[in-house]
């Protein structure tokens, strides 16, 4: 498993090194948005508005499905008229009850944590929406409860279907008046994602391909990824998860201002000081700053000062700016680049980005 940047511009390697087609899956983001919006409407998410606004929205999901809850909260923003909470475990918080809407998201429809939370939601009499694999245990729970179910047929890894899994939540929230997105918004976002996919396509060479050049900057570093707003922090979290699952790579994520109260101190630590990769020049720690166009003025100040601080200590920094105006477009642009970068990172190391055998083994071990 050694890093070879040349692999990224070798078309045969990009084909053979990615047998399950993770690059193709990332390129399908725009199509996921269009298909999933139609599926959400056909599944009747508009019926959720009949009972009025819930007291809170609780999204239950794990990994690439759980992130849909963070996407929802980020796009609704800090002006959201009710709490939007993501639960990544077996139990719903004690306060969740009949006046709340629980949205259970599972691509396979079989993650045990999500099934447990959905079952608990039914038991407590909560309103329920389920999103996930057709014919699954999750669909059965939703049907039995008379709740709407949006089928998602991504076929690939859950993390590769992030937009198929997130759009039904956004469509439901729009019906409840929690945010403004319509077909035109989704189309604009899909167009943005197509444009990024074109820039990051395998045939586009490293020096003009942002996905490949980011992978080159990530390689042989310990990446620390910060978001400069709550929205950009969701992208930072997604970057870290994608680096973990696609790249089999460690990553640290944080949000400004919080990162300025702890993670910033690592600029003075051992990994900023020396190279832990024996035969490479340079430092190990690298800061990636995901910049939102809407930042709190104090956060913008803190971001600029943090970048200067890193430069003063010779910690390399990469800054990536969100594109577009609508929050969903800005978030999607940051996420898409991270999805490409983590996939190219895996391919540059000669690793198949798709399988997650350690997760499979973990599940086998706990089932015994
Ligand atoms: O969407 P699902 O099928 O519930 O899976 C959730 C998460 O669990 C995994 O499948 C691994 O257990 C992840 O890859 C995924 O992100």
Automatic annotation (TrEMBL):
One Pfam match: bact-PGI_C
Keyword list, A-Z: Isomerase
PROSITE patterns: SIS
Domain SIS span(s) in chain numbering: 45-184
Gene Ontology biological-process entries: carbohydrate derivative metabolic process; carbohydrate metabolic process
Any one GO molecular-function label of the UniProt entry: mannose-6-phosphate isomerase activity
Family: Belongs to the PGI/PMI family.
Name the UniProt record assigns to this protein: Mannose-6-phosphate isomerase
